[in-house]
Amino acid sequence: MISYEEALDLINKEFGKINLATEDVELTESLNRIIAEDVFADVDLPPFDNSAMDGYAIKFNPERSRNIIGEVSAGNFKEYIVGENDAVGITTGSKIPEGSDTVIPVEDVSIENDILLFNDNAKLKKGINVRLKGSDLLKGSITVNKFTMINPSVIATLASCGKDKVKVFRKLKAGILATGDELIPVSEKPSHDKIRASNNYALHAAFQSINQEPVSYGFLNDDRNAIAEKVKTILDSDIDIFVTTGGVSVGKYDFLKEVFEESGVKKIFWKINIKPGMPFYFGVYQTTDKPVLAFGLPGNPVSALVNFYIFIEPAIRKLLNQKEKEVYKATLQDDIRKKDGKKHFSRGTIYNGTDGWEVKSHSSQSSGNYYELGNANCLIITEAEIRNPKKGDVVKCILI
Amino acid sequence: MISYEEALDLINKEFGKINLATEDVELTESLNRIIAEDVFADVDLPPFDNSAMDGYAIKFNPERSRNIIGEVSAGNFKEYIVGENDAVGITTGSKIPEGSDTVIPVEDVSIENDILLFNDNAKLKKGINVRLKGSDLLKGSITVNKFTMINPSVIATLASCGKDKVKVFRKLKAGILATGDELIPVSEKPSHDKIRASNNYALHAAFQSINQEPVSYGFLNDDRNAIAEKVKTILDSDIDIFVTTGGVSVGKYDFLKEVFEESGVKKIFWKINIKPGMPFYFGVYQTTDKPVLAFGLPGNPVSALVNFYIFIEPAIRKLLNQKEKEVYKATLQDDIRKKDGKKHFSRGTIYNGTDGWEVKSHSSQSSGNYYELGNANCLIITEAEIRNPKKGDVVKCILI
Q1: N- or C-end of chain A: fewer Cβ atoms within 10 A?
Q2: CATH of the domain at A101
Q3: Chain B residues lying within 8 Å of A43, measured CB to CB
Q4: Which of B269, B292, B315 is the last residue of a domain?
């Protein structure tokens, strides 16, 4: 059985072969997308010397009074030539009139008989409260780097560079199919030995949560021919990733890995030394123009979702050149039972304690217990070689 | 001038008067929405005693061999009565046959002449590898609490409770209008003393980022009559929040607060002892059936967005009963110049250092510099009474 790290390396390697396409989207629709071009300033930012305050523009000298010769406001510039004894009223963001180099804030002055007087505590220093042209960024320099995730302030920057449309990476398309004789539709009430099919909903949301494009194919019961036919159809559609749940363990009905291979998927590995989510199948289907990465996840709802968080999400982040998720070091608030040599990803609740981050491990850790997963906000990572982490140990956590 | 805390209290108080409406959405469209009902389990979870492993279901006794009398798999239950000497092959998730109480994993057994033999190292303990009916949750108990933000694992839980539709809080509708004579459309190239109108794009994205519904009204130049007419129309539309930028300082063209009041907005406060974002106007417009909260933000792109992060986002979180954003304590990597008695929210970059969180303050902190804001991932909070925090000081940060 391969290790978590080996499995992730193999997955990353195949993701690296995906050809990232791009598309142009409206700036108002670009939030959380990954930009696919370097964006350059087409003007200096700010585009002109301007005032950082409401006040008076002056030519610096030690005198503490001036004659007011006019006023300018943002977007209403008038030409003045400011001499040694002059001041021009100015509002925040207004262009600085010729001759002036300094702005005295309105709070620091008084006016008597049309003469501007600086208060005793007014700070008088050449250049204060003036934002120089190009001081944020010079024309021609990069304002937003390729692979930046677009957030509200990046959008402000893009707007200031004239980008009302922006080139972003196309979302990866992920087909999702759940399998299992035990599954019934969510709208039905389970009886006997049936459970509602929740995995396709959870994985659909998981791909949405990282801003990719899920396509749900619902679920199929364990009819090998029907599954084989569906799998082939999905593999030949326009998806980049194909995720199935169920049918990858060692039971009689666990034929999904065989179906994958009969459909032309080349197996990369099966089974990883982790818990939960050990019976994980990964293969690649090569169409004429692109690879489809095929993930056979376990049918357990928690296992499937944990596998998504620890393999698929990190691999997509890496493909899109995003930083790895932060690892939080937190003090464990209870013992964790871990007797085996697998790497564990246990559900926990992390919070800001009095003395740094603290994390509570959830009690059951049953891989069927999605109620508990729903209440978790992190996965606690325990390395394969560690046994039974104790209350007070510092453990690594990633937020989910 | 009121303090940050006083201002936020007053804003929270008015948000508290908003009547939160609800709507039903498809489960597949519910990600990141806030659930508006307690959801109860309509069946026990799991709905039946089932196996946690692929293996053999037995009735516990110290004997280390059994006769295999049949097999069951998930969704393919058959009735067996398991006696002291019997075993039934079972797959993960399958219902446990009558009489059995324990599952021995397939890895721990061998079969010789149809006789099941437990390996020497097989753990034999009553009840192992059986997930009891209702052990995750009993029928009738709450599975998802009202006000939970819906994430992928909550979606799995909702699916397992039969919710293919779910009641969530309606998104708040936020009108956005930028004002200023200096503004030109993003598609034009600025010359003279003009700048591109970026605030409406940034605030639009900011409301999207917290999953509310922005409505952009673009921008208007400083024509008082035109602005007054537009403001009145927007206030009387179906919005909950109205955000303007520009026109709230003390200059000649800063008439927006007067326009608000002439339109029937009742002023709650103007100006807060903070930096950036001091000239902040807040008022309430009472229509026949609901309040509209009116925010007059400064025209500076950074100030407007910082005001959003420190007032509007926290108030909406509180209204929706969400936890406050985590405050990270981080070691400052450079000095911050802060000579005044305002509470500062400086842009910074926080990262996981060798010895806990570390944060770099950005150099210019100019409130026009959105390029710098785009590269920041946090705001460093410096309390009003603190002066010049130094490299090595532990400071409070919130992620943006």
Answers
A1: N
A2: 2.170.190.11
A3: 189-190
A4: B292
Q: Are residues A249 and A354 in the same domain?
A: no
Window 153-172 of A, Cβ < 8 Å to B? 153-160, 162-164
Beta partners for B399? B378
Q: Are B4 and B310 in contact (CB under 8 A)?
A: yes
User: SS3 string of A80-99?
Assistant: CECCCCEEEEECCCCECCEC
The domain tally of chain B equals 4
Could you tell me the pTM of the whole model? 0.94
pLDDT in tens, B285-331: 999 999 999 999 998 888 999 999 999 999 999 999 999 999 999 99
> With a cut of 0.85, is the ipTM above it?
yes
Q: Can you tell me whether residue B37 is helix, strand or coil?
A: coil
Asked if the model's pLDDT at residue A58 lies above 80, the reply is yes
Instruction: Check if the beta carbon of residue A72 is closer than 8 Å to that of residue A88.
Output: yes
Measured CA angle at A245 (ends A241, A216), to 5 deg? 55
The tens digit of pLDDT for each residue in A148-184 reads: 999 999 999 999 999 999 999 999 999 999 999 999 9
Residues B73 and B205 in one domain: no
Of A74, A193, A370, the CB nearest to B160: A370
Q: What is the CATH number of the domain that holds B39?
A: 3.90.105.10
Same-domain check for residues B223 and B190: yes
Token pair in block for residue B277: 């974002």
Instruction: Tell me which amino acid residue B364 is.
Output: S
* Choice among A17-21, A243-247, B251-255 with the minimum mean pLDDT: B251-255
> At residue A1, what is the residue type?
M
Q: Which of B167, B110, B127, B178 is nearest to B144 (CA)?
A: B167
**What distance, in Å, lies between the first and last C-alpha atoms of chain B?**
26
- Of A28, A209, A356, nearest to B204 by CB-CB distance is A28
Q: How far is A258 from chain B (nearest CA, A)?
A: 18
- Residues B150 and B275 occupy one common structural domain: no
Quick check: helix, strand or coil at residue A227?
helix
- pLDDT for B45: 87
A47-86 residues touching B, CB cutoff 8 A: 47-48, 50, 52, 54, 71, 73-77
Report the C-alpha gap between B309 and A14 in whole angstroms: 39
B226 in a structural domain: yes
Residue at B179: amino acid letter: T
**A250 band by pLDDT with thresholds 50, 70 and 90:** low
Question: Mean pLDDT over all residues of chain A?
Answer: 93
Question: Inter-chain contact A93–B301, Cβ cutoff 8 Å?
Answer: no
Q: What is the DSSP letter of A246?
A: S
Of B91, B209, B373, the CB nearest to A253: B91
The predicted structure's pLDDT at residue B251: 65
Domain span holding position B183: 170-292
**Distance between CA atoms of residues A198 and A218, nearest Å:** 10
Contact present, A384 and A317 (Cβ < 8 Å): no
Same domain, A201 and A313: yes
Looking at the structure, tell me whether residues A278 and A344 fall in a common domain.
no
> Between A and B, how many CB-CB pairs are < 8 A?
320
